[in-house]
Fold this protein.
Amino acid sequence: MKPEQEYTVSEFMNKDLVEVTPGTPVQRCAQVMAAEKVSSAIVTEDNSILGIVTEKDLARKIVAKGLDAKKVLVKDIMTTGVITISPDESLYDAMLLLSRKKIKHLPVVADNVAVGIITAMDILRIQPSYMEVLAAPKSSRR
């Protein structure tokens, strides 16, 4: 068994990405996410990541505001400036990045193309000891 610092993102990332285009209606995006049993969808165009839509986005930006999910497009609610990680990075570094940026979904990118996604829950299932990284006070994080 490898030392925990040697596990890489590529070993545990989910390769079955849910991708939508910016012009996808939010309701359709939510339906695809539900059908695939995932908590996020990557917004892409011409193999480039433009954004991400999460269940939190759907709840806060559509449901809480009473907007019509059939009429609102993904581009109107997606989070832009998506933080990504290389498949060669360690799981520990992925957890640090998730913790530092206060995010839960981390698209995995190789050669400027999304090749997978890893979430905080994925990592904690694999390596429960990383819970301390999430619980650590901000000042003690790298």
Observations:
- The first strand starts at residue 19 and ends at 20.
- The two ends are 26 Å apart (CA to CA).
- Residues 109 and 115 are 6 Å apart (CA to CA).
- The helical segments are 9-12, 26-36, 55-63, 91-101, 120-126, 131-135.
